[in-house]
Protein SCAI
Amino acid sequence: MVRGGRQQQPRTRLPSRLTGTVEKPPRKRKTRDLPQYGQKQWQSYFGRTFDVYTKLWKFQQQHRQVLDNRYGLKRWQIGEIASKIGQLYYHYYLRTSETSYLNEAFSFYSAIRQRSYYSQVSKEDRPELVVKKLRYYARFIVVCLLLNKMDVVKDLVKELSDEIEDYTHRFNTEDQVEWNLVLQEVAAFIEADPVMVLNDDNTIVITSNRLAEAGAPLLEQGMIVGQLTLADALIIGNCNNQVKFSELTVDMFRMLQALEREPMNLASQMNKPGMQESADKPARRENPHKYLLYKPTFSQLYTFLAASFKELPANSVLLIYLSATGVFPTGRSDSEGPYDFGGVLTNSNRDIINGDAIHKRNQTHKEMHCLHPGDLYPFTRKPLFIIVDSSNSVAYKNFTNLFGQPLVCLLSPTTYPKALQDQSQRGSLFTLFLNNPLMAFLFVSGLSSMRRGLWEKCQEYLRKINRDIAQLLTHSRSIDQAFLQFFGDEFLRLLLTRFVFCSATMRMHKIFRETRNYPETYPQLPRDETVENPHLQKHILELASILDVRNVFFENTIDDY
């Protein structure tokens, strides 16, 4: 559910993911009935009487009826109405992170395609109508990507390719190059995964990376951990040259999937043994609320941070995920404060001062277009969980916990072995470990495909590894209590265990030879009890043996058993 009082109305124009803008965060987030929401925009958009669209809103409650031609409209106009309703549901998803709204958007977009409401557009001589059709395809693809409906995505990409080819052949417009770029982006996006899982007939298996039932390691009875809950997440992407589509980079998409639950039928859940819950137990929120920010300016990023910080409920956690190019300090500094180690890049294109574009400062000044560790200090007044995937992630190792609230930073390697650097455009290896650790393990082991049966066997063994990592963390006598404060939340618990698996794998791998190749944390984890634990190292070698890739790992790092 969305919290707060008044909610900002959604925009009926093209979503920010397709326009290069970042939407303002709603000051208050509260669910209200859809028919009360956006009627004026609809009236002005279609230029018809308010009464007609009031009736359409009523029909909207019965999805199919909205799509029937009851008002003598052209078929493409009905398609636009249905597309706008689907877009409205998509906006609701962005504000609430409730997957049910995505499913509603998918139902409307699917109906448009099945009933061929845009079929007559190609016969028109008006390029703006064709652009409406192309935008519909782009929005539909985004929804299908978020729902992991990759089979539908591939069909839509083929149809979009045909439509763009026809569009560029018939009209000599300035946006031909842009639409061809859109097609190239989505094609690269769906091919970003470095490993394919195959059925016996060589068809590709669609794998889901959302949090499944019992996907996170269960807490042992009597285990003392914090009761904090992940409520909000800012997912920020500002990596140069990384594959993206609709202003959603591969890293952003993977982290978004890692912070969502797998949709589940409630009845089947309650019928499973051991799944009955007390009637007086409060309902669990489906997903944390998420802001998706692609190349935001510093002011935009800070606006979202402040809005999320303000609305964060008690006993809740704010997660900040930064996937961005590193900004390194210029010149020498006599001090070592939170602004002396650089940080990660923010966008400077839209920051204007006194009407003039900002120019590069001299070396005596700090970089303006950079999120320094010190910039996050005000937000450590509440529980904060930070993930930094950047070439200068170690800048965030220099944190100081000023207010005594739980604070953890997971920091990526600052560089990778040369053999893996060519794959950086397809997404970061560190984020891949947090999203799909088995795929990342296969990738660093030199495997590009795997049969479904072996994949499922390895997944089961990886779940055992995660359970053991959870025990290592909770049984450690020297671990910082901040880690355990976050361990009560399923999403954060899974991210922590995957991080330990990632770090242990890289430390044992033969091509990861430099200290810069290893991820780090703030506060530091006790290495001998976690990432360099002999029991965990033995598990990693056993997983490598299952895959017949044991030769790429060091074996002299474990004790004899």
Remarks:
- The mean pLDDT is 80.
